[in-house]
Amino acid sequence: MLEASHLTYTHPGATRRFDLSFSARPGEVTAISGQSGAGKSTLLDLVAGFLEPSAGTLTLDGIDLLRLQPEERPVSILFQSETLFDHLSAGHNLELGLPRGKPRDEKHQLISAALTEVGLPDVLGQRADTLSGGERQRVALARTLLRDRPVLLLDEPFSALDDETRTTIRSLVKALTARHGWITLLVSHHVDDVEALAARRYQLRDGMLFET
Amino acid sequence: MLLSPPFNSRTLPNRPLRLFAGAAIATAIATLVVAVLYAIFTTAAGAAAQSSRVDVLHLVGMTSIQAGLTTVLSLLVGTAIAWALNRLRFPGRDLIVGLFASAIVTPGLIVAFGLLAVWGRSGWINQTALALTGHSFEVPIFGLGGILAAHVILDGAFAARILLARLDAIPERRLKTGQSLALSPWTRFRVIDWPMLASSLPGLAAIIFLLAFTSFPIVLLLGGGPANQTLEVAIYAAVRLDFDLQGAVTLALVQIGICSSIILAAAAFAPVSASTGASAPPRWRDHGLTRALQWAVLAFGIVGFAMPLVAILIDGIGPGIADVMSRASFWRALGTSLAIGTGSALLTLTLALGVGLGRAATRAPLLRISIGAPAYAYLAVPAVVLSLGAFLLVRNAGLLPETAAPVVVLCANALLSLPFALATLAPPLDAIAEKRGRLIRSLGLTGWQQFRAVEWPLIGRDIGVVLALSFCFSLGDLGVIALFGTEDFATLPLLMYRALGAYRSNDAAAIAALMLVLTITAFVLLPKLVGKLTDA
Fold first, then answer.
1. A83 touches B at CB < 8 Å
2. What residues of B are in contact with residue A7 (Cβ under 8 Å)?
3. Residue A104 sits in which domain range?
4. Same domain, A205 and A163
5. How high is the ipTM of this complex?
């Protein structure tokens, strides 16, 4: 269980203070919705460690996450854009998600298996900037599989996708979350995304979260 | 409204080793600057009682007039050429743009010699006039006119390239609005083009003024006597010809003071961006007289810039070249030039990468300035002054200048290229840290993985540009080698200058042609080669 209690943060030079409390369970998607500028991405950055709260707690199964640097946190992130390194192939992007020191053959097998699981077995050598928006998000999801972290943060990941692709990727996220027991935290201002995915919902308003 | 969380220190990967390396390089560079200045100051203090014959006021006045006129003329020429190039599309346009871009690395010595080959007494124009009319057509190429012409050829082309990038970056929507309003060519320039150009002009003017103020080979070759001497040439003359060390030191201090003031003033202006916007196909064409004027301006620009270079190639690559190439001194100088060029290019790259990566690893403003600023200090210390400082340091250390010459020339050339190298590498490294830092950090990449998989491929072409710039700068340098060169230790520019001094103009032409071919080859090929090597 991922739990935040009175996670407090104020952006430098801003007056609005965030005071965030929530909990999210494994195997299901917890959605945070709110208007543009409400601070949804700020919440994810606090969980990922890119922002440092002034007070509060953040724990995963009782373990304090706040003392961990971003790269040490048990978290994978799917951004809206800049999810992949455009100049690298899909395979090379995935390789960056694997622990170092694995033998080449084993790496190749793991990468192929991950790509197959997200339904893209044939893009291994393709440069990321030649992939469609949906394919990019699938490759990023495949990398999430390889990283095998218990928490998945989704920062408006479907915003740039067409309706059909959006539906496909949403189903994939839901299935992977259930299959791998991830604690998936989704921020989105699209009602459709929240309706389709969320087992638990919060609304972010005036710097605070309200369960709906 | 805050749509995306801000870029902060926690979105930057934690890289203490990079910070340390950057700080160490910055400290070493700063120490060297201080040592050079200390050597100059102590020599000035020690020789205070001696009298010197240098006329500082006259030299400052002459240098300022020359640099001021160069700046105004170069900006006018550069604006006109950029305007014409922005409007016209034709096969080979990219080649012409590349030709103007190469001005930054074309050695001044070559352009000065090219001017002589075209406009000098034995030049093309005069020889043609004599053959056709029986009368000579001599242009006063030695003196202020010649200096200005050579500077405007180089700096005007440089300005054209920078300003063209600004014009090409005008948003298409703005052009569509202007076209729908049927703006006249003049109103279009005033309302749409000028605001884009104006922000770059002060910074560009400062750079051109600095380049002209510290120009050495052009004034040395075309100055025509003490009346047109500038500070740089006077320093060289004081050390090498008059053995007036006190005079040289006084002039060096004046030079450093003025250059520092120009740099500080330039820092207040918007930085000159050489970023090239995608050049959209021109849907909005001018017609009639305006179009004819654009073609005329472009033809004038191409002929003005290319003719001296073509003259060098035609005059140089002839029967005389075999004679030059049969001499051991030529091969020795070529070997020295290539070795120093390669060594200083690699050293420049190492230093610039160390400083650039260190700077990009932190958001603390003071730390970033501390790491980056020493590299830019060499803008205020021109080649001849740096060379003089190094000369004094070596002498004070009890070493013979000729013993230390190879190391000093290599290091001095690397340091002189460093500001340009850092200006090329720092922005993309900062952009990677800003744009990719979160992803890099969330994936937990190591510093080496970050460099190998992300930075190296993304800055490959910039690395090629840095290598090409510093190699070409070093290849064409006369300012540093002029003080340290000996009979046994000479580079191609020094060999060429000696050939000119001995009235062996055929030899000089052959060496100039070879230097030009080497420069253009390195400038064109190195970025492409390194870009391919680093391509993922």
1. yes
2. none
3. 86-148
4. yes
5. 0.72
Task: Report whether A199 contacts A185 (CB < 8 A).
Answer: no
Q: State the Cα–Cα distance between residues A49 and B498, nearest whole angstrom.
A: 64
Boundary-marking domain end, from A124, A148, A172? A148
Task: Supply the DSSP string of A104-136, one letter for each residue.
Answer: HHHHHHHHHHHHHHTT-TT-TTSBGGGS-HHHH
Buried b (16+ CB within 10 A) or exposed e, B172-186: eeebeebeeeebebe
Residue A98 near chain B (CB below 8 Å): no
Is residue A79 situated within a structural domain?
no
Contact A41 B449 (CB under 8 A): no
What is the β-pairing status of strands A198-205 and A28-33?
parallel
User: Would you say residue A192 lies in a domain?
Assistant: yes
Do A77 and B438 lie within an 8 Å CB cutoff?
yes
- If asked whether residues A68 and A157 sit together in one domain, one would say yes
User: Hey, are the CB atoms on B443 and A36 less than 8 Å from each other?
Assistant: no
User: Structure pTM?
Assistant: 0.79
Say yes or no for a CB contact (<8 Å) between A72 and B446.
no
Hey, what amino acid is at B415? L
Q: Do residues A172 and A129 share a domain?
A: no
Q: Are residues A70 and A155 in the same domain?
A: yes
Instruction: Verify that A2 and A70 share a domain, yes or no.
Output: yes
A157 and A55 in a common domain? yes
* pLDDT, tens only, B458-474: 898 889 989 999 999 99
Name the domain boundary from A107, A123, A148: A148
Closest CB from A14, A77, A87 relative to B442: A77
Q: Is A151 exposed, middle or buried (0-12, 13-18, 19+ CB in 10 A)?
A: buried
Q: What is the CATH number of the domain that holds A185?
A: 3.40.50.300
How far is it, in rounded angstroms, from Cα B485 to Cα B236?
Answer: 12
Q: Which residue of B has its CA nearest to A153?
A: B442
The answer to whether residue A80 sits within a structural domain is no
Contact B2 A37 (CB under 8 A): yes
Distance from CA of B6 to the nearest CA of A (A): 8
Residues of A in contact with B462 (CB under 8 A): none
Give the distance from residue A168's alpha carbon to the nearest chain B alpha carbon, in angstroms.
Answer: 24
Domains of chain B with bracketed CATH:
52-316 (1.10.3720.10)
- Please give the tally of structural domains in chain A: 2
Instruction: Kindly identify which residue of chain A lies nearest to residue B12, measuring between CA atoms.
Output: A50
Give CA–CA dist B92/B181, Å, rounded.
32
Residues B8-33, buried b or exposed e (16+ Cβ, 10 A)?
Answer: eebbbbebeebbebbbebbeebeebb
Q: Give a yes or no: residue A81 inside a domain.
A: no
Contact check, Cβ <8 Å, A12/B454: no
Same domain, A53 and A142: no
Owner of token pair 């160069």: B70
Instruction: Count chain A–chain B contacts defined by CB atoms under 8 A.
Output: 77
The answer on A57 and A20 residing in a single domain is yes
- Per residue of chain A (212 residues), what is the pLDDT tens digit? 999 999 999 988 888 899 999 999 999 999 999 888 888 889 998 998 888 899 999 999 999 999 998 888 899 888 877 788 888 899 989 988 888 788 889 999 999 999 998 888 899 999 998 998 889 988 998 998 898 899 999 988 888 788 888 888 899 899 999 999 999 999 988 888 888 899 999 999 999 999 88
Chain A residue at shortest CA distance from B444: A71
Among the partner residues A36, A50, A85, nearest to B438 by beta-carbon distance: A50
